[in-house]
Predict the 3D structure of the following.
Amino acid sequence: MTAIALTPAQRKEHRALAHHLEPVVMIGGDGLSESVLREIDAALNAHGLIKVRVHGDDRQAREVAFQQVADQLNAAPIQHIGKLLVFWRPQPEKERVVDEDRKPGPKEVKVLKYSKRGGQRPEVRVLRVLGNQRLTSGGKIKRAKPKQTSVKKRSQG
């Protein structure tokens, strides 16, 4: 596999996004082993953009590791600065299983309560409304009323 080629603008954008990241994989004195490559691959699948720290003073070895990881894992080499290496690879799409029987979960609802005096800010409250609850016009949560059945059905059952 070959490394992903990016434009300078894309590389610049990824460098900016990676600035605040902490290294998630460390390459020790043994160098680039199979287990380290598996960890880098798993981190790329999970995060997409990662930093790798290389322990070792040999700059040539870091350059070789930088290119080797990019080539073997089909990742884009973003930056090599000091002992830090930055890689990016698009994250794979996660498969979502849609359950037809599943009902909607709780909703977060913002309720604004305006003051009687005109110049004050409204009070903002965030309420969690569950599936069996409803929100009244006054901003209170009430339980949903049970479905009404007719008199005939009640007398039969």
